[in-house]
Design brief:
Elements lengths: L8 H6 L3 E5 L3 E7 L2 E6 L3 E3 L2 E3 L6 H18 L6 E6 L2 E5 L17 E2 L2 E8 L2 H8 L21 E11 L10 H8 L3 H22 L4 E12 L5 E4 L8 E5 H5 L9 H9 L2 H10 L12 H19 L14
Antiparallel strand pairs: 1-2, 2-3, 3-7, 4-5, 6-7, 8-11, 9-10, 9-11, 11-12, 11-13
Length: about 325
């Protein structure tokens, strides 16, 4: 990655960030009315639950991986909000308003976070496989021929595009019309979101192919800038948002996961996931998620540093490189 000179003490003092809020795995700090700083923690979450365990090196791998993919966006002509890395675990981004109901902004709103998570799937895995097993997603809906027996790990006939909520406590799938109304975007903008996702994912697949990885699925978020144009925001392409498999293992019929799925499976195996789903279905109090065992924390930490290296081709070092240029 290209290096830049570190800011002077005077410049640093002039733009000392102010704490705004904390998300699932990062803190949001205000730099100015038009700029934010994301500070990535070592926290981890699954199933919209914050796990009471810290994963060493996780925050740095997320920040540096996200910066790597935003640079890819720049090369592919995709608008985004990334400005620069501010340190090994933090990045500066263009600011957009977070408004749960964009329709309150009036007609043709600008400068706001589109309250959707956009998911594109290329293989049958994760929650999609859960829905297939439950009979909630049919072979025809996934693009297969009628009567086809869908298998876990199977490559989909084409990209499978889905929309879920972003600002609700628990993500839920949205039909197209509800998504358009909620996000205050039109069909032309939705098609632009689709094509942007496909373009970026094509770049990801080409980048990681020489390093023996398959891009299984991933989610992205979008914002509307002050000129009313779409741009990619937040982060994507990391072990938190996306799923990757080892290609050599896949060719042998094995799905070796390089993503947070490793942690999800732990909570499925222990029975916690079933208890959580039952509580949500009954609208009952959700059981607290237990911490990860210490040995598993070490494994997950190694997973994140390994994924960083496999995705970027850059050796993981601590501390990380100096901030990259905008």
């Amino acid at each position: 990655m290209p290096r830049t000179a570190r800011p002077s003490a005077a410049a640093s003092a002039a733009e000392a960030p102010r704490y705004l809020r904390r998300g699932k795995v990062k803190e949001i700090w205000e730099v100015s009315p038009t700029e934010l700083e994301f500070r990535f923690t070592n926290d981890i979450s699954v199933f919209d639950k914050h796990i009471p365990s810290e994963i060493p090196h996780k925050g740095e791998t997320l920040a540096r991986t996200a910066a790597f993919w935003f640079e890819l966006c720049g090369r592919r002509g995709v608008r985004h909000h990334f400005l620069r890395l501010a340190g090994p675990t933090s990045m500066r981004v263009r600011r957009v308003r977070v408004v749960p109901e964009p329709k309150t902004l009036g007609p043709h709103p600008t400068n706001y976070l589109v309250p959707l998570e956009v998911i594109v799937r290329y293989y049958v895995a994760g929650s999609l496989w859960d829905r297939v097993k439950a009979g909630q997603a049919t072979a025809e809906q996934l693009g297969f021929a009628r009567g086809h027996a869908v298998r876990y790990g199977e490559k989909l006939p084409g990209p499978f595009f889905e929309l879920t909520t972003k600002l609700e406590p628990v993500d839920r799938l949205l039909p197209t019309e509800e998504a358009l109304e909620l996000a205050q975007i039109d069909r032309r903008q939705l098609e632009e979101i689709r094509e942007t996702c496909f373009s970026v994912d094509e770049g990801i697949a080409r980048e990681i192919e020489p390093r023996g990885l398959l891009h299984v699925d991933g989610k992205k978020e979008f914002g509307i800038d002050s000129d009313g144009r779409l741009m990619v925001v937040d982060t994507f392409g990391t072990a938190d948002e996306d799923r990757f498999w080892d290609k050599a293992a896949y060719d042998r019929g094995q799905m070796v996961d390089f993503s947070k799925e490793f942690v999800r499976q732990h909570y499925r195996t222990t029975g916690y996931y079933d208890r959580l789903v039952a509580a949500r279905a009954a609208k009952a109090e959700e059981p607290p998620i237990p911490p990860l065992p210490p040995l598993l924390v070490d494994e997950v930490s190694r997973l994140y540093t390994t994924v960083f290296q496999r995705l970027t081709g850059v050796p993981y070092t601590t501390p990380g490189p100096a901030p990259v240029a905008p």
